Structure of RNA-directed DNA polymerase:
Amino acid sequence: MSLRTRLLANLPFSKNELNLLIASAPIRYKEYSIPKRQPNKRREVSQPTPEIKLIQRWVVENELNKFPIHESARAYKKNVGLIANVLPHKNNRYLLKVDFKDFFPSITNHDFRKFMIGTEFSDDDLHDLSQILFKADHKTKTLRLAIGAPSSPLLSNILLYSLDSVIHDHCKEIEVTYTRYADDLSFSTNRPNLLTSLYENLPILISSGTDIHLTVNIEKTVHTSKGNGRRITGLTITEKNEISIGRERKRILNAQVFRFKNNLLSIEDIEKLKGYISFLRSVEPEHINRLIQKYGESTILALQR
């Protein structure tokens, strides 16, 4: 049974509607930008139309979930959060952080089709999947993964399985811990000077692990150590090798809880604060007790989801 037949049997589209949606899927995106953490920088986001999102989600749940994801990949996994990306590094003294430039758009439909050679999908299926999963880049006249498509995260993990394997195996040989959270690669060890040579060899490891044209963002490369502060994907590893949200985030959080207690937050900000309290409970639950002592149990209970 072809992919298109399976889609017709499971989604609320007629044959003509589905044919039109697949044919036009790469251009059915709304584009906008959001602020980055860096000052005066913005991230381009491409949001698929609801119909294309529905098809992409069905493909993720029924076609892509069967492919393996390497244990080193920590993002976009069910019941796996940011803390799982930090825990393996917490007892290591030296840390190297590397970032891929333009991660999702670096992955093209040609990379996908090459990866899928030898799978159960026919040429027609792969054509339809390329249309459904990739966005048209009008500048380069190519199809690329979109930041904002619900299928892009899982697909990136699938396509980087070989790269994760190559880097993981190399790191294991030289006593380095490796994890990847989307485009953020983290390496740690207790052996001095080892991460410098690893960084120099990283382009070779990348080229041997994947044909995807991935480029290291030199501006975001960070070498650090226990004495200079270790932060991975927004979380801090303290001098005592404990995982924390960090002093600055605690300061902001305390201010928000104070504003909530005094009825100074909007409904939207209250929902954000509730989400962050929930996140805090999973990362640094002892700080919840400090908030209770400072602002009262009733205040913190009101922020529990």
